[in-house]
Sequence to fold (340 residues):
Amino acid sequence: MDRPIIKDIAKALNISPSTVSRALSGKPGVSKELRKKVLETAEEMGYMKNLSAQSLKNSKSKIIGIIAFDIRNPFFLDFLKGVEDVLFPREYKILLSTVDENVDKEKIYLNWMVSQGVDGILSSPIKEKNGKSNLRLYQNFYKMGVPIVLYDRMFYNQEQFDYVVIDNQDAIIQALLYLKEHGHRKISIFLSKKGIFTLEERLKGFLKGCELLDIPVKQEWICEDIYPHEKTFDVLKNLKDKNDLPTAIIATNNNITKYIVYSARKLNIKIPEELSLIGFDDTPENELIDPPLTTIKQPILEIGKIAATALLSRIEDRYAQPMKVILKSELIKRESVRYI
Fold:
């Protein structure tokens, strides 16, 4: 499917191209109702102003766009290193945008990157807890032949996209198995913002693992939507005040892990004597914390390298079979889990 142009929108609405142009640019001479109809049709067709159409068509910009869900997350340090290891020797440059888990911001940056003529995009798609996402926009880009590879997150039931993710369910199941081997049956999971693909998968892994390992599931210990992450303190305090602390917690991202450690200290809950903890994502500080933290380590550098390689392949051949890569995580065992 070729990129739609003004004439295509005009034909679809049976109006003149000049009227479409005025509507899109906000110039006078077009009614409010017609302008709205033009804008809606343009979005449905996947139209956007193209400042570098020839560059995009011929893949000569040598620029790759990267959509980051939150650049403050330590995940991106290793991910970007992996991407650069692949792209820099091939003389590609990186255009990075952070969207702060905001669907509307993601939409703006995606459209802008494509209009600027990037050769391709690496993206970790956003989905809000109400289900809102930019799936239709990604689908339009796919139909237009814009090379996009999804990393860390993906869309369910959209097999046309290339993606590189980890087996999030297995990561949590392995953590549960380790806790059970240490005698734990009262286990909680702390989850961040609802709707995010990785967290949905980690919750599925928790429920599946508890069933497989005959670990009781207590609804009060499935602590969801802890966002912003400072809410971790209130969640942990509430469990303590109700005398309902589990013996172990599995955190599902690095920020929640840090806030559990911080909150436990503030609440005088000793790790691991009173509360065992398994974190998610391994950073150097996990070895410096007292006690050193047991964590689920993602192969983040490899995710970056494979995603960048997949994108280069997609740029070279837009009709190739989608590359679907699911990597395994590793449980790094330290001293934050005790036998009971």
